[in-house]
Amino acid sequence: MVMNKNLSFKSNGLYFFDSSTLNWLPLACEEVNLNLFFDGVNFVYFSNNFCPACRLFNLVWYPFVEEKFSKKDNIYFYVALCNWFTENCDSSCARSAFLYFNIKASPTMVIIIKHKDKIIKHYIEGNIKEKFLYEILNQAIKIYENLAKNSQTNYH
Considering the entire predicted model, what is its pTM? Predict the structure, then answer.
């Protein structure tokens, strides 16, 4: 299911952007923890169908992912979608993600920078502009590259 800037998901769930097919794929899971995420920079967008601010952010988020960063190495994009947080969510996987990351506002972006046993999490609540998304992504890439570089120098 390829999104465009005028659409939003209707089905609750946790979705992963597959850069090889340019599709958002639903993930099946019993619980969410950091093992679910890849080594690299993982962006998780927490959205709610009944959230007007999320509908606005969708106009920034989906084109940003699909048109600008879909082919970058070590960068992964997810959407956790409920109707209204854990109180109204038809997906145990999405509900688990909201609970695990203790999401209390939407839209919320959680950036997980992961390299081997090193993990850095950063939360951003509220609507943000595309320019700020670029800045966040570039900072996260630099942090990941530093973690990888420091990891290599520690083993030599």
Answer: 0.89
Structure token digits, residue 91: 């997906």
**Structure tokens, 25:** 């794929």
Domains parsed from the chain with CATH numbers: 13-154 (3.40.30.10)
**Is the backbone of residue 102 left (phi > 0), alpha (psi -120 to 50) or beta?**
left
Q: Maximum Cα–Cα distance for the chain, whole Å?
A: 52
User: What confidence category does residue 125 fall into, taking pLDDT thresholds of 50, 70 and 90?
Assistant: very high
